[in-house]
Amino acid sequence: MTEPSEFKQYRGDGTTRGGQPAATPGEQGRYLASPDVVHAVNAALAVEQPLLVTGEAGTGKTMLAFSIAAELELGEVEVFTVRSDHQGRDLLYEIDNLQRFYDAQVNDAAARERGNYLRLGALGRAFRSEVRRLVLIDEIDKAPRDFPNDLLYAIDRMELRVPELGIAEAARKRPVVIITSNRESQLPDPFLRRCVFHHIEFPDRGQLRHILDERLGNLRIAETLRDRIVDRFLELRGVDGLLKKPATSEMLTWARVLHAAQVGGGELEGSLRELPYLNALVKTREDMARVKPSAA
C-alpha cells in the first residue's frame, strides 16, 4: 500500500521531518514504532480524531505519545493522568477556590478577582496555545462513566469554556489527542466510534532484542547476554498465575542491574528461581512466591 506523502506525517523511525533525531524525554535511544502503529497514528492525524491506544503495561502506549510529539515537533506534551474522581471539565480548567479562600483570610488583593485562580488543564492549555500541541490522556479506563463522552464533547466543540468567568474562546490550534487505556471493554460505544483505535501487542523476541539494543546500546551488552536476558524474561512472563507480568521497563532495569554487577550469560542458566537479581523483575510478594516458592 502506497500512501501519499502528505498522509504520512508520522514515520515512527525516531526522526523529525528534517531528518534530525527525535529522542523521547528521559529515554536513551529512539522509540521505533511498528508499521501497524504508524498506520494508526497517521489515520488519526488525517481525520483529526483522537487515537485510542490499548495494550498491557510496558508496551509503549505512553511513550508513543512522546514519540509523535517529538517527530512532529509539537513541543512539550500536555499530560493528563486520569483519576477516578476526575470530571470532564478538569481537562479544560479548574478554579482554585480553596486557595482563594486562604488568600481572602489574609486580605490578599488577588482574592477579589476569581480569574486569578483559574488553572488551565491539559486540553485548555492546548486550546490556548499559539502552536499545535499534543495532549496525552493517560489511563482513561480509570475515569468515571461520563468522562469519555465529556472529553469528546470538548474536542468536538474545540472551545475553551469557563462559565464561571464568562470565557468562551475557540481553540487557536486543533491539538493532537492520544488516549491510553489498559482495556477498551468499559468504554462507551459512542466514544469508541469517534476514535481511531489501535491495540499494541506485547513485543516478540526479536523486538525485545531490538529494544535492548536501542535503549541500552551505550552499555555495549554482549550479544550472548542480551539473548539470554530476552529468553529468560519471556520464560518468566510465561509463569502461570502472575498478578503482574514483568514489562519491558522491568526487562531494561534487570539488564542494567546485570551489567552493573558484571553478570555473564552463563549465570542466567538454571531454574527461574535461581535467576540473579530476580527482584528487579518480580514486583509483588505473591508473584515472588510463585516463581520462588521458598519466598512464601
Summarize the SSE layout with pairings.
Elements: H1 35-47, E1 51-54, H2 61-71, E2 78-81, E3 93-95, H3 97-105, E4 118-120, H4 122-128, E5 134-138, H5 147-157, E6 159-162, E7 167-170, E8 176-181, H6 189-193, E9 196-199, H7 205-216, H8 223-237, H9 248-260, H10 285-291
Helix pairs in contact: 7-8, 7-9
Structural features, described:
With 296 residues, the protein is α/β, with parallel strands linked by helices. It has two domains: 35-199, 3-Layer(aba) Sandwich (Rossmann fold), CATH 3.40.50; 205-295. Helices cover 35% and strands 12% of the residues. The chain is built from ten helices and nine strands. The strands form three sheets. Strands 2-5-8-1-9 form a five-stranded parallel sheet, sandwiched between helices. Helix 7 (205-216) crosses helix 8 (223-237) and helix 7 (205-216) crosses helix 9 (248-260). The longest helix has 15 residues, at 223-237. It is globular and about 70 Å long. The chain starts with 34 loop residues before the first helix and ends in a 5-residue tail after the last helix.
